[in-house]
Amino acid sequence: MPISRNPQPRGWTSADAATPPPKGSHIDLIQQSHERCAALGLTRIERPDYSPLLRSDLNVAKERNQRLFTHAAPVMEMLFEQIVDTESMIVLTDAQGTILHAVGDSDFLDRAGKVALSAGVNWAEQSKGTNAIGTALFEERPTLVHADEHFMHANHFLTCSAAPIFDPRGNMLGVLDVSGDQRSYHQHTMGLVRMSARMIENQWLSDDYGNRLRLHFHSRAEFIGTLLEGIIVVGADGKILGANRSALDQLAMTGISLRGHTLTTLFGTTVAAVHDHSRMPLPVPMKLSLPNGLQFHASARFDWGSRRVFGALPEGFDDKARRDEPRSDAAPGDAAAAAASTRAPQPPSGLQFLQTGDAQVEAVVQKVRRVINRDIPLLILGETGTGKELLARAVHQESNRAKQAFVAVNCASIPESLIEAELFGYEEGAFTGAKRKGAVGRIVQANGGTLFLDEIGDMPLALQARLLRVLQERVVTPLGSHRHIGVDIAVIGATHRNLREMIERQQFREDLYYRLNGLVLKMPALRERSDLTVVARRILQGECPQGKPPEISAAVMDLLARYQWPGNIRQLANVLRTAAVMACGEGQITEAHLSDDFLEDARKLPPRSVLQAAAVPAPVPMPMHVAPPTVMVPAPVAPVAPEPAPSAAPPANRTLEEVEIDMIRAALDAAGGNISEASKRLGISRNTIYRKLRWNKAA
Description:
- With 699 residues, the protein is of the alpha/beta class.
C-alpha cells in the first residue's frame, strides 16, 4: 500500500515546470515501444487490467525482494524530500515490473490509484503498454515517457521517469520510477531518479563485496567519494568481479567485457601494488591508465572492520599461500583452461570455514548441520571474542535464507532508552529526537532472513516481554503506530552470561529463554582449543590478502600457546594485526614485532607444560577419609626433607592436587593476591581457584 506524505509546502511547484522533454532518438524509442504493444494485441482505448496480485502473492514478491527494499527505502525517502508537493509519487518495482512499494503526495496517490499505480500491480509493457517502468525494463536503460507518449489513453495524464537498478554483475534487480501529473514535468527529475538508482546500486555493491578490494576512481580526483565515481571490485587473484554503472560508463565497457579483465590488463597494475600503496602514510589517490592512455585517479577501499572475526579470510585464500598459482584471467579455450583443472579449490565458506581441526568446534558444527532450515532457534554461549557472531553468520550462509538479510543487533551496545525503537522501529513523532519520517526497525529489516541478537542477556527486562510476543506471533508493531507488520525471521541469540542464573535472580524471563534455546551451542574459549596455529595463520592471511603472509617464529608461537587469551580470538587478531604491520617487508614475525604490553604479560607465565598441569579440571569431591589418587614423580637419589624450603625440589610422592595448589598460590603471589588476574594467567575460573583453596584448607 502506498505511503501518503503531506508535509509543509516546499520544493518545486508547477511554476518551475519546464517544457515537455526534447525529441530526438527519444521518438524512435517511443515508436518502437508502441509497435511492440500493438504486436501484443493491446489497444489504446481499452481499459487495462488493473487487478493487483493476491495479498499472499504480493507478500511472496516482497519477501523475495526484501534486500532490494532494504536498500531502496531510505533512498526513496530522501528522493521524496526533493520532489515533495509536485503532484508526484516514487515507485519501486521488481525485475518483472510489479510494484513493491510507493510513496508520494496524498492527493496524487488518489489519482494514481485510479490507474492502478499501486502495490501489487504489474506495469510491464505487456500489461500497461508503453510506460516508463515497463519500457525501462525492456530497454534496460533510463526511460522517460511523457503524457500522450503512453500507449494507453488512461495514462496520458502522467509523466514518468524510470531508471533500472542492476546488481554488480549486471543482473536486473528492479526499477525506480517517479510518476506525476504531466503538467508538473521538470527536466531535472530524470537526473534525480538516475542518481537515486545509482545510490541503491552502490549500496548493493558494498553489501555484496564488503570484504573485497574495491577501487573507487574518476578522471578527476575531487569526484572520488561522490555518486559520479566508478567502483570496481577486484578478487584476490586480480580478476574484476563487478562494477557499478558509473564505472561501466567511464570505461565505456559492458559488465561482461569488464569481468573478462584483470587489474593488470585493465589498468596495468597488480593487487599487491594497490595494497602497498594503501598502506602508505596519508596515501594520495593512485594514477591509473587504460591501454588507450585514458587516465584515472583511484582510491582503494578494503573495509577491514567488516571482515570475519578470524581470520578475516578474504575469499580466494586458504591456509596455503597461492602466489605461485596459475592466474585465471586468460580467455576461454586457451592453455588457461587446462590450468583451471589443476587450480586449488575455493576456500571454505559458511560452516566449513569454522572447521579448523578443533574437536569442540567440530562438534558444534555437526550439531548445527542437523538443525539448519528446521526453524529451530539457536542460542550461542561463550566468552567475549570467541566468534559467536561468526558462527551465526555461517549458519545464515548455509541456510535457505542466505540470499536475504542478516541483521545483527548488539543488545549491550545500544542505550537502553533506544533499543526498543531500534528493534521495532517507530513512526514520525513517536518520541523526542525521532527522525522526521520514522524508521524501519531491525526486526523488519531482517524479514525473510536472520535476526542475530548478540548479548541477549543484556536486554532490559521490560523489553524482553515485547520480544517474546514478536517471536510467538511473528508480528511487529512500530512505536507510535497501530500498524501490525508480519515478519518471517530465523532467530539466533548469543550471550556470555549465565542465563539460568539470571532467571533465578529474576533478571531474565524464563519463557523467553525457552523460546530462544531450541539448540544451545557452546563456543569454546581460544585457550581451550587445539587449532591455535591454524587460526593464527588465517588471521595473518587476512592481513596480507594479496601477498604471502609472514611466518610466525617458534619463540612467538610458544608465547601465543602459553598465553591464556582473555579476549579470545578477537584479542589474538589484534595482536597479530599489529605484528603483521610491524613485520611489513620481513619474512617472519619475531618478539620484536609484538607489542610491549603483550610481551610483558606473556613472559610472566610459567612454562606451558606446568600450565597444562595446573589447568586440569578439579577432581570429583570424595569423602575425607579416602585419600586422593597420587601421581608418582621420579624421586631424586638423595633423600628429601619432609618440609623442604620453597626453592627446593618437589617431594617424590605428591598428588596432582598438591601440584595444582602450589601453582595457584604462586600465581596469586605473582598477581599480588588479585584472584581475577591469577585466574586469567592460569586460564581457570575464579570459582575454580576458590574451590581448590577451600578444599585444600579443609583437608
